[in-house]
Design brief:
It is built from 14 helices and 13 strands. The termini are far apart.
């Protein structure tokens, strides 16, 4: 009897070992593949960033800032409970170096004193301007009042509306906009003074084809802000925020630059994107029922242009920088990552007809397969991969030496990408990173693999699961500490 039990136990152990072998190797191969893709994007991003930096060196931005341009620009800033940062954001937007721009703030039914601080700071009075987005754009939130600054020299308008969500509030701002181009800009952010001049340059160079551009996003935590401008860059003191600084560097400096170079840019961030207003109104602007509204709009424009065989370009411009406050506590960060991944699933599923469809060119054949395989499924592979690899090591299903070597390659690739991101940031934007800061960023690239990435992977899976179960999407509230300002 004991022999039979021993035999059964041995057979079970071998079966488990075989399953782990079968599962562990594809998992390791997946991690190796995703890092090779990242390195390919690094090369493409490097080429794109270098060309962009070389081009900027011959631009006379001071002359452009004072010269008349053919394209006026409206900065649309949806705001919900942003009283801690709204004044600095508006001042930053008003002070931007651009000869013809206005700022439209949409107070999305804030329950704090966002509207009151705007009224006091800019002496707002009722305006004769009205919101008119045309028949293609539905605006659900009732408009209570449109205000403007009493001083005619301040090109600021404020829309006070009932709470209807960020997308609907942004659509109201687009409906009020009076310029050719619209900048979608988060109220918890500030821009570099020359950001608009740089972001609009592709429209001026190629006015017939360029329909949208996206700018660079950096974390403002730890930096010093004076009069709506970042005067001193720095790393935040909290490791949670530091990890996000590194994430933003990789995603924008290299990832989106690489996709832009490929002609398959699938995401223009809602925190800083520039669109032709006529294109926005034609495609219906933002979808209020989609929580991943920025990616949904990008894909909608791609689909609209491709179906009409229109020659077009959507470009990521690495030089213009928008500074945003990132979460510095786990509950807020969790809500953000759950929302992001839920939005990713909703958008990919909504536009599944474009996947591997030659009609949509590189967007359908390269960009979307990447997002399905290496963005949507990434947290699933990360969580299961950790479990599988640990179990395989414990049971002897795979060689510890080989496994550690492959993991070392993956970690090394991550560190390499981070270092290249920092170096590219210095070369393209002429920013100085001291050795201590570089060392901390490299440390972040290593330490993020010891819990942080696994935790965010679990949160992303939660967002995916919520979407699959059909639970109502909730934006949640981002608590603000405000900018370090003088």
């Amino acid at each position: 009897m004991l022999d039979l039990l021993d035999l059964t136990g041995t057979a079970l152990h071998e079966a488990v070992r075989l399953v782990l072998i079968v599962a562990a190797w594809p998992t390791l191969a997946y991690f190796l593949a995703i890092n090779l893709v990242y390195l390919a994007l690094v090369v493409l991003g490097f080429v794109d960033t270098q060309r962009s930096a070389a081009r900027r060196s011959v631009l006379d931005l001071a002359e452009t800032a004072t010269a008349p341009v053919s394209l006026g620009l409206t900065v649309v800033m949806p705001a919900y409970n942003e009283s801690a940062v709204i004044i600095e954001s508006v001042r930053s937007s008003l002070a931007l170096d651009y000869p013809d721009h206005e700022v439209v703030v949409v107070n999305d039914g804030s329950t704090d004193d966002t509207l009151a601080v705007l009224q006091e700071a800019f002496d707002l009075v009722p305006s004769a301007r009205s919101v008119d987005a045309g028949p293609q754009v539905e605006i659900r939130g009732a408009i209570r009042q449109v205000y403007e600054a009493r001083d005619p020299g301040i090109p600021l308008l404020v829309v006070d509306s009932e709470n209807s969500g960020r997308s609907d509030a942004t659509n109201a701002g687009i409906g009020l906009a009076a310029k050719d181009l619209v900048v979608i800009f988060d109220a918890d952010s500030i821009m570099d003074p020359d950001a608009l001049l740089l972001a609009v340059q592709p429209f001026l160079d190629d006015p017939l084809r360029v329909v949208a551009t996206g700018g660079n996003i950096r974390a403002v935590n730890g930096s010093r802000v004076v009069a709506g401008r970042v005067t001193e860059e720095g790393l935040p003191s909290q490791w949670l925020a530091r990890f996000q600084v590194v994430e933003y560097l990789r995603a924008f400096s290299l990832g989106r630059a690489g996709w832009s170079r490929l002609g398959a840019l699938l995401l223009i961030s809602g925190a800083f994107g520039v669109y032709r207003r006529d294109v926005l109104l034609t495609v219906g602007a933002f979808d209020p029922d989609t929580i991943g509204e920025d990616m949904e709009l990008t894909l909608k424009v791609h689909r609209w242009c491709r179906r009409r065989r229109r020659e077009y370009r959507m470009v990521f411009v690495s030089e213009p920088t928008c500074w945003t406050e990132v979460p510095d506590n786990l509950p807020v960060l969790r809500r953000q990552r759950v929302r992001w991944h839920r939005g990713l699933w909703e958008v990919l599923w909504k536009y599944r007809g474009m996947l591997l469809n030659p009609r949509y060119g590189r967007v359908g054949m390269v960009g979307l397969p990447y997002y399905w395989l290496f963005e949507l499924f990434a947290p699933l592979f990360e969580v299961l991969g950790v479990v599988m690899i640990v179990a395989a090591l414990l049971t002897g299903a795979v060689s510890p030496v080989l496994t550690l070597a492959l993991l070392g390659i993956a970690l090394g690739c991550g560190v390499l990408v981070t270092v290249l991101s920092v170096l590219l940031e210095e070369m393209s934007h002429r920013r100085r990173t001291d050795l201590r800061t570089l060392g901390l960023m490299v440390a972040c690239a290593l330490l993020e693999n010891l819990g942080y990435r696994q935790l965010t992977a679990v949160w992303r899976l939660q967002g995916w699961w919520q979407a699959l179960r059909g639970r109502q999407a909730v934006w949640g509230e981002m608590t603000r500490t405000g900018f370090s300002t003088s």
